[in-house]
Write a structure and sequence with these properties.
Layout: E1 4-8, H1 13-23, E2 30-34, E3 40-44, E4 52-56, H2 63-79, E5 84-89, H3 108-119, E6 124-127, E7 142-145, H4 148-158, E8 164-167, H5 173-183, E9 186-194, E10 200-205
Parallel strand pairs: 1-4, 4-5, 5-6, 6-7, 8-9
Antiparallel strand pairs: 2-3, 9-10
C-alpha cells in the first residue's frame, strides 16, 4: 500500500490542518503563492514519487483562484510522479451551472469536470453537489458524500417540536423532502423566480 499524503491550497488551510490532525499525519509541504503579475506559483517541497496524494481544496469564493490552485497543484503532483491524485472538494464551484438554462450559455460544471480530469485526478471526492448529475460529467470515479446523516442526527438530539423544513426552490425539493421525512417534520416549498444571477423574486410559499 502506497504512502498517503495530504496537501492543500489557500482555500481553507484551517480545515486542511484539522483533517490532517484528525488523521494523525503531517500536512504535505507545498508553497502556494503568487508571481508579481498575479499568476499562481506552486512548488511541492517534498518527495511524492509513488505516493497516494489527496488535495483538500474547496473551489469556493474566490472560485477562479481556488480552482486554478487546485489544477496547478494536481499538475505539479502528477509531474512529480505521484501514484494517485484525489482532489477533495467540499464545495464544488460552478456546480449550479450544470445545464443550459437558456440559449448560448456554457455548461460550466462540465467544463470544470473536464479540467480536473485533464489536470491529473484519478478520483474525485466531493459532497452535496448542486445536482447529482454532475457525477456523470466526470470520466473518472466520483465519491459523492452527503451531509444529511450528520444534520439528521443533530436535529434528532435536539428533539425540537413544530419544525418545518423549507426548500428555497424547486431544485431543492427532493433533498428537503427526504430530510423532512427522516425527521417527521413538515415541508414547505418556496416558489422562486430568478431575475439575475444574483437576484430572485419569491412569489409564494407552498
Amino acid at each position: 500500500m502506497s504512502e498517503l499524503k495530504l496537501f492543500a491550497g489557500n482555500a481553507n488551510p484551517d480545515l486542511a490542518k484539522a483533517v490532517a490532525k484528525h488523521m494523525k499525519i503531517p500536512l504535505g509541504e507545498a508553497s502556494v503563492g503568487r508571481f508579481p503579475d498575479g499568476e499562481i506559483e506552486i512548488n511541492i517541497l517534498e518527495n511524492v514519487r509513488g505516493t497516494d496524494c489527496f488535495i483538500l481544496q474547496p473551489t469556493c469564493e474566490p472560485a477562479n483562484d481556488n480552482l486554478m490552485e487546485l489544477l496547478l497543484i494536481m499538475d505539479a503532483l502528477r509531474r512529480a510522479s505521484a501514484q494517485r491524485i484525489t482532489p477533495v472538494i467540499p464545495y464544488f464551484g460552478y456546480g449550479r451551472q450544470d445545464r443550459k438554462a437558456q440559449p448560448r450559455v456554457p455548461i460550466s460544471s462540465k467544463l470544470v469536470s473536464n479540467l480536473i480530469t485533464t489536470a491529473g485526478a484519478h478520483r474525485v471526492l466531493t459532497m452535496d453537489l448542486h445536482a447529482g448529475q454532475i457525477q456523470g460529467f466526470f470520466d473518472i470515479p466520483v465519491d459523492h458524500i452527503y451531509t444529511n446523516p450528520v444534520f439528521i442526527n443533530y436535529f434528532k438530539q435536539k428533539k425540537l417540536k413544530d419544525v418545518v423544513v423549507v426548500s428555497p426552490d424547486a431544485g431543492g425539493v427532493e433533498r428537503a423532502r427526504a430530510f423532512a421525512k427522516r425527521l417527521d417534520y413538515d415541508l414547505a416549498i418556496i416558489d422562486k423566480r430568478r431575475t439575475s444571477p444574483t437576484d430572485a423574486d419569491i412569489l409564494h410559499v407552498v
